[in-house]
Known about the structure:
By secondary structure, the chain is of the alpha/beta class. It contains 12 helices and 7 strands.
Amino acid sequence: xxxxxxxxxxxxxxxxxxxxxxxxxxxxxxxxxxxxxxxxxxxxxxxxxxxxxxxxxxxxxxxxxxxxxxxxxxxxxxxxxxxxxxxxxxxxxxxxxxxxxxxxxxxxxxxxxxxxxxxxxxxxxxxxxxxxxxxxxxxxxxxxxxxxxxxxxxxxxxxxxxxxxxxxxxxxxxxxxxxxxxxxxxxxxxxxxxxxxxxxxxxxxxxxxxxxxxxxxxxxxxxxxxxxxxxxxxxxxxxxxxxxx
Length: 245
């Protein structure tokens, strides 16, 4: 609360009007406000400075921020905003620095790639399909597989540069790990996208992109850990393909 003891009667009038009519304070010019309150622009400036602001612009900016905060609080009462906080936390990280080594290694592999196989199960399978489409858009021969029992691609010549990008939140699903090991035995370069870099899948991978988001499981078995970071990583990889497209 602002102490109004040092305010003149005119300044108190201005203060009360500004507090009671925030929309007008935001949308009207200082001259228009003066006309509405029946005071001079100079009186408004003096009032605003006593309120702690250096200028009318600073006052309006602060008022706008206060209104936005109030609107956000009202929305938070009606909607679950946890996903916004999680996404904001992820994107506030220095992501270029975090993934710099992995991106350099990826660009070296993809520059000579003959094909890319995306693999995942469940939600990760849906994103594997998305990743394959994105890579295809940028000129890379890409396919996806969501069935752990589907026959592996026929083994190509030993010098073929084949890449498998495997998606798994936990990195511990037995079918995922088995498929990674089988592909690795067939001379695939394994790139994994997991929630952490200490999982089994991450350890058997040549390159691992981990996003380190708090896992969320509901109804004991349903993993609802956000996949926003995975979409970001897939987009970042696709847009760093050195191909003529």
